[in-house]
Structure formats: C-alpha cells, structure tokens
Amino acid sequence: MQVTLVTLVALVALVALAGSEPLDAAGVAQLVTDFGLRLFRAALAARGDTNAILSPYGAASVLVALQVATAGRGRRQLEEAMGFSIDAPGVPLALRALLRSLRGRSHRLEAAQGLFVARGVTPSGAFVTRIRRALGAPGIARLELRHGEGARRALNAWARQRTRGGTPGMGDLGIWGGGAEGPERLGTAENARAEFFGGSWGVPFPPGATRARPFLRPDGSEGSADMMEATLRLRCGDFESPGGVPFAVAEVPYAGGEVALLLVAPQERHVPVVTLAPLLDARTVTNWVAQLRPAPRVLALPRFSLESSWDLRGPLKALGILDLFDPERANFSPVT
After folding, report:
1. 3-state secondary structure (DSSP) of residue 45
2. Taking Cα atoms as reference points, which of 122, 127, 97 lies closest to residue 18?
3. What three-state secondary structure class fits 224?
4. Span 47-68, mean pLDDT?
5. Per residue in 311-321, pLDDT tens?
6. CATH topology of domain 207-302
7. What is the pTM of this model?
8. E strand or H helix at 256, and its extent?
9. DSSP secondary structure letter of residue 71
10. I want to staple 319 with a disulfide (CB 3.0 to 4.6 A). Which of 23, 81, 105, 330 is the partner?
11. Is the CA virtual torsion 145, 151, 156, 162 positive or negative?
C-alpha cells in the first residue's frame, strides 16, 4: 500500500519518538503533532463524517516557513497557535532531527519544500539564510506566478522531481485560474510542500483473502467493498470516550517496525467515526499508544485511495491566525 501524504503513519512515528529523543526534540515533536491534530480537527469540523487526509508534519512545516516570512502581530499569532517559535533555542535543529527520524531503511519517505518567488522580487539575504536554517535548505526558485497554468505545471514537475516520482504533482489546487480576482491574487511568493510515503506491511495481507464484504456508509446504508483480511498479533486496546463511546485502537506495523499505521474505530455499528475526532491531541494519542498490548486479531481493511483538497484559511483563523489573511494587517516585511 502506498499513501502520497504522510498522515497517521507520521503521527505514530512522532508519538513514538517523543519518548526517545532528547528533551528539546521530543518537545518539538509533541508540539508539531498537537498542532497538526488541532488543525485537522478544525478542518474536519466543516466536513462532518467524510473521507479526509492531512499531513500534520507537512502543515506544521509550511507554517514554520510563514513564521520566518512574517513579523509583528501575525508572527505572534503563528507562534501562539503552533506552541513554539522557530527562533527558540534548539528548535530548527530539533525539526531537522525529527525529519531524519521519520525516514528509515525499511520504508520510503520523500519530503520536499520549496519557496517560489515571482520574477522581479529579490528576497533579502537574511530571509534566505533564516529559512534555510529553519527548514534544512529548502529549494528557492524563480517562478512566473502570474501565469497561473504555467505555474501549476512547473510546481507539479517540481513535486514529481523532488519526491523521485512518488507524487503525481501538487494537483489542481483551485488557485491557479483567474477567478473573480484574476491571476494577480497569487502575489509574489508561494510556499509549496510535497510528501510521499511508501512502505510494505510488516505482515502482508494474503492476496487470496481479499474479498467483498459488507461496508456501512456514513448515511447508514450498507454496500460492499473489497476488504483485505489477515489474522495478526497486533498491539491493540479498548477505550471509551468521555461521552461514553467505546472504541478500539490497533497499531499495524510496516516492514522494519520503524513506523506504523494507527487505526481508531468506534465499536458500535452506527457511531460515525467523526465522533472520535475531538479526542485527537498529542497527549491522548500518546496515552493510547502506551496502553496498547499484543493480542491476536482478525484485521479486515478496505482497499482504499484518498485524495483531499483543503482551504485552510477558515481552520487557521479558528486557531487564532488572523492577520496573515488581512491585507491591511499582514506583515511580510522579512521577505524583502
């Protein structure tokens, strides 16, 4: 199975690292996880019980770049929402150590981050130095941002190259066309990030065991889906939400045991999975992982592919990041 965005795989790795890294790196890992999950909860709130995918680490990395690019109250809002400042002692080093830890010998993780600056705009030397220090030398390139379709193609090619063909590109993000505001709304700089994770299950699902099984849809109707099935010994546990909803958590390792997929599901048939979304924070997930115990289980998972497109302005505003989206208050003076 291959996932083109690192989601729960990275989440489990971040939580596992929290107990083994030096204190500063562990604290940053926990804060990155917690911010990513708060952003996910805010983004999911408007969608309800639906399929969605988000990379907590990727979202945090983009906003780290924005910390470097902003000043004044907007910068303070970013720091307060994320729980840390990129200028705090040890934070850049801890972020780079976190990315190295997420990479492994038994799985493939490609992460690329780039700053694309419009022709005619010259970033300050101090800004270039700081953003490279913060993010580990991201690519900085010229791009004709006013040519929407051409810019989209260029970014897609960049994503494919930097992830070694792992991602098809940045996708149709819906921001490249003219629209009511025209292509000029793309401004003078774009911060892009692409991630790819590829790994094999620690215990492969037998191909012959995949078959159609009943599958309950969010509206309560029942259909069928091709389900992979295997009898495994997994670290798992039973829990109950503060509202009395019972749910199960299971950890499905990838080959090599360095990362794992953390599955969380209600135990009652008609309880929507979105009911559990408010529980997602770094401390709670860490506690789940700590309480899991090995037990034999029959695991059945649907064969699936997910693709999500997000407009994160609303969720970020809900987390208190306001000035970045206000033309009268936004302060990007560190860039030039």
Report:
1. helix
2. 97
3. strand
4. 85
5. 888 999 999 99
6. Alpha-1-antitrypsin; domain 1 (2.30.39)
7. 0.80
8. none
9. -
10. 81
11. negative
Q: Where are the domains of the chain?
A: 2-199+312-325, 207-302
In this structure, which topology does domain 2-199+312-325 adopt according to CATH?
Answer: Antithrombin; Chain I, domain 2 (3.30.497)
DSSP for residue 138? -
Block residue for tokens 């798992």: 236
Q: Which residues contact 305 (CB under 8 A, 6 or more apart)?
A: none
SS (H, E, C) 261-296: EEEEEECCCCCCHHHHHHHCCHHHHHHHHHHCEEEE
Tens of pLDDT along 209-243? 899 999 888 777 889 999 999 999 999 999 999 99
| Size of the chain, expressed as the number of residues it contains | 336
Per-residue pLDDT band for 297 (boundaries 50, 70, 90) equals: very high
Local structure of residue 254 (DSSP, 8 states): B
Task: Compute the distance between CA of residue 235 and CA of residue 297 in angstroms, rounded to an integer.
Answer: 9
Lowest mean pLDDT among 6-15, 143-152, 259-268: 6-15
Output the six-digit token pair for 114: 């780039």
Distance CA 195, CA 58 (A): 8
